[in-house]
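pls read this stuff:
=====
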Amino acid sequence: QVQLVESGGGLVDAGGSLRLSCAATGRTDSRFVMAWFRQAPGKDREFVSAILWNVGSRLYGDSVKGRFTISRDIAKNTVYLQMNSLKPEDTAVYYCAAGNILGTSPSRYDSWGPGTQVTVSS
């Protein structure tokens, strides 16, 4: 199984930027898709972005399109989420996930990190 751990969360002003990292260990050769989800208090877990590990194809949720960029460093087994033009509504716990098939539903992913808090102040 793949183990995931997120880092880089914190407090940032509206309009600012933040970069999240997700380091993968374990059986990383069995993972084909890595993704970012977020969850605010009282809300469902929301799809943010995903990347196909081998070819680098990307998918973004409508709420972050044009502001966030997902990328990966193959040598480091790490996926990143560059977040620009942050808004207060981006405030949430951000989770890294891994799975076999690209999708936007949390149920399609098998491995999850513990999450990292992102807070955007107004």
